[in-house]
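Hi P.,

Sorry for the delay on this. The queue was packed all week, but I finally got your sequence through. Input first:
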Amino acid sequence: MNSSDPYRIPGLELIDHAFEAPLDYLDPRGRQIDLFVREVRDLDPKSSEKPFLVFLQGGPGFRAPIPIQKTGWLKRALTEYRVLMYDTRGNGLSTPVDHQTLGLEGDAAAQAEYLTHFRQDNIVRDAELIRSKLSPGMPWSTIGQSFGGWCTMTYLSLHPEGLKECFIFGGVPGLNRTAREIYEGTFPFVEERNRKYFKKFPMDKARLTKLAKYLEEHEVLFPNGDRISPRIVQTLGMKFGFAYTAEEIHFLLEEAFVKAGDKEIVSQAFKVGLQATVRFDTNPIFAILHEAIYAQGTASGWACDLVQKHNYSHFDDYEDFLFYGEMIFPWMFDEISELKGMKEAANILAEKSDWPQLYDLEVLSRNTVPVACAIYADDMFVNAKFSRETVDAVPNMKAFYTSEYEHCGLRVGGEHLFSRLIDLGRGEVER
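Then the structure:
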């Protein structure tokens, strides 16, 4: 372990910690990768005595938040914890996975094998390695956002002895649900979000039909050179799961076209705005391992694509334009330049059927770690029905069910919502 000297930004003291961990825990003396966590403290002279709270980021495929100021949930957390912003393997300042590095692993088979080590089971094993250095012999607390809740349930399965208490926001997985079941449950939510969107902005239906027709008939390129297709525009719907983003989409579409002489062409402003939402170029784990986080002893098999083709083929009708949600399709590896080199590896991973178990139902049935979770009734990303199944099956899990927040409840509700879960987990409130 290497740790920096403490340094300060307004209201916060930070310490950077770097570790080495095995790529494959079945071969602990083999290849090593880098891990990074940033310790965040308030300026209380006794802050070094506070216990740790580990932040498990959503995704998969995103680094931990960068602390800029003491606000929101972090403000509440720092009153009693030191917070560890944990860049999970593949992300941030830990050994990264991106289009610049993955090709160095060799051919597609070698790339796929490498990527099998970047799911939540190894994220948990890495966390335990870090705990052995920073908090030896002492369990710590975790806070998981979205996919961070998936990691939490794996942590409770593999190493419950490392946990004192857990908080989950919009991320309680269905323990036995396959990738196909996940998407069969997701599409109805996405259709409902489309209905609400076009009820609010009915003028956008014609705009989108016009835009789709234009994109089919003309080669329109992003600033990075990728072609813009109608189905790339459909991915804007991924933003539906967050607060106030329907308005963002509407105002982006409002400037989709610009007059150039006597013609209308797709505007540069629209191209730039749309490209900013296609984040798979900088966070490819989100695309290439998106369905693998559901796989346990079965192949994910491009589940979302299969469900769409079999049951929701009307999404292909641009005369009645509909947005997709948080969904990954194989065609993305043909159309997004930074993903093209990963296409063969992605197909190998989609066909892999011997994925290890991520959740130990026997261990979870005897859970003694207090777990408090926020479950959002209208969450487009995480099916509340599947979350409830898990809460009902795992002892000492308590849920706050609410329709007040979208999937981004932790960011929007911040200090208030985190305080609510702390009280729930500690028995100060019942629900």
